[in-house]
Structure formats: C-alpha cells, structure tokens
Amino acid sequence: MRVQSISSYISRLTVSLLLLLTVAQHAEGQKMFKLEKDSIPFFRGFALSFDLVGPAKLMLSDYGEYEGALRINLHDQWFPIFEMGLGRANHAKDEITGLAYKTTAPYFRLGMDWNIKKKKHDPYRIYAGFRYAYTNYSCDIINDDLKDPIWRTVSEFGEEDIKCYQHWLEGVFGIDASIIGPFHLGWTVRYKRRLFHKEGDIGNSWYVPGFGINDSDNMTVNFNFIIDI
Amino acid sequence: MRKIIAVIFLIAAVVSCVSVDCPVQNKVETLFVLKKAAGGADTMGIDSLSVWTHRIYYKDKQDTTLINRLCGEKTQFAIPASHTLTEDSLFTLLKDTLGHEWRDTICISKENYPHFESVDCQATYFHHITGVKTTHNGIDSITIQNREVNYESAEHFFLYLKANR
User: What phi, psi does A123 have (nearest 5°)?
Assistant: First the structure.
C-alpha cells in the first residue's frame, strides 16, 4: 500500500500554487486586487454555466462528468464560483486485464477567478483562478477470475462498495467570450493536484469523480456554455 | 499578456507529465540471496540449484520449474509468490559435479492482500511473510530479511547452503 508523506503534500501544494503565483506576480503590475474606480456597479450579477466536455467524454468513453457552476460577477474583476457535478465511470470487464471498475458520485468545488485583462469591462475576459474541490465516493473493483500464472489457481479478486474520498486543488486558466446577449462560451484549462485522499485497502482508485483518471496530478479542459442571469 | 500565457502553458506542460503507475515489467517475487555462514555473498560455482513447485490445486497437479540449474557467479534468485495460497512449498535440488544430490523443501507461510493499480494494469496480490521452514539436507538455514512482498525489489530471504554438501 502506498504511504503518502507530508512532504509529498507540500510538494504538490507548491506546484499547484506555482501557476497562481505566476499570475499573481503579473497581476501586481495590473493592480489585479485593487478595485478600479469607475461608474460600473460593484455587483454585476450571476452567471450559470454548463460544461460540454464532460458529457462528451461520457458519450465517447467509459467515464466523464455532468457539471454546472454558479459564478458571481464582482465589478468584472473578481468571480467567486461554486461548481458541482456528477462524475461517473463504468469500465466493463477489460479485455486484457479482466478488471471492471464502477463508480458514480457528486463532487463540489469552491474558488475564485480573476479577470486579468487590462480592460475589465470588455465582452471578452481572461481568467486566472483556483479551486478547492472535494468528493466522497464509493467504487467497485472486480476481477472474478484472476488466474495465478504459476500455480494456476483462480481467485475472485476485488471488492465492492469501497469507501473513498479525495480533496484536491486546481489552478485554472480560462477564456470567456460574449456570443450574443447574455450568452457566453468559454474554455478553462485546469491543473489539478491531489491533497488528501483515502482509496480503500486494495490499492488505487482508477477514476475519481471530478478529478478524472487518477494520478497524483491531472490536467483537464472544460468548454463552458454560460448564461448571465 | 502573451508572456504570461506562454509561462502558464509551459509550467502546465512540464508538470502535467502523467505517469500511470502500471508496473508492466515488475513482478511480485521473493528474492533469495545466497550467503556464506561467515556473512559474505555465496555463489553456486560449479554446483547447480533447481527449484520447482507443485500445482496441487490445478487439474494436472504437475510440477512446474521455477529455477533451472542456477550456477556460476550469481548470488541471488527470484521466486514468484502464489496469489492466494497461505503456504508456498518450494522443492530444491542441489547437485555437484560428482553427481551428488541434495533435495530439500522450503515452506513459506504468508498472508495475501489484493492490489489494484488501474484497469489497464494486471491485478495482483501483495504478501506479508509470516514464517519460513526448511529441511536440512543441502540447506543449512534460511532467514527472513524482509516480510513485505510487493513491487519493491528487496532481499526477502538469506539462504545458507551447507559448506560440506
């Protein structure tokens, strides 16, 4: 069983924050954290968004997500955001390894985006931000006829309803373009670093809802359909 | 702005090199190290050592060879561990060049734990060695050095052969 050391968590946090620090350093010159004084009101409304990449992955592969988000627009500068989704993986018995993996669970993210463009009130925005995310899930890992290559015994490998959880951080970089009226389209690229996790007693989770195919780090892309409300 | 975008993508590209921890070449094996009574490394030299086991739960119930005539300057050999048996029985045949033979049986008791990495990686079992016994025809003794058998390569047993075999 893999033992996670404190140093590994620290290194992950360091790399995760590297992206944000790079942005923050640049932002210092642009006074990212300072409210621009103009006639635009501080509260600019809400936006709802839906990711289109996750459902596409569900259609084309054996895992994916349905995900939506609620974002608050503060002066076109700051965007506190809450995201939630349902992650699903249903990998039927693998042709080579004979392993099957199944999980379905919700996940949540909380974070903030900054508009790093000089002209904040343009219809086009460039975001940099972060997310803290969490999911609590259970998974089934089954191989009902695992053969021992030497002794030729056959065993029922695996376990059902393995209780797991994972906390992770995401560094986000995004582009948002106004299409027509209240409708926007946007891309976000996310770099994810695992913080704390529990994966049961028999090894690793293959897919973690909201995080993706599991490793200590992960890179994903979202394509969002956004509506200002 | 172009610089900052380039930096972000460069960092992201560097740190996003995902490594699926799929040990294609790794095996779950016990490593036996040949030792002299004085403590130094031993070799088979011109003698030879064969190891096999008996597939008692398989329909043919035949023996299968694990090591065939180990000889020369090699100081160690690896033996796979069974997935689910609580005791692995290994049969050894030690031969010298004069035609003398010494047969022994090594019994390794262990606990077995299923281990999963990914659906793309072959499932396997890790083991915790709880004990080892041997007969003493050609083998003087055997000691446990590391009880955990997994993908890590470690010396699990020191095998002492009789000097006057």
Answer: -70, -10
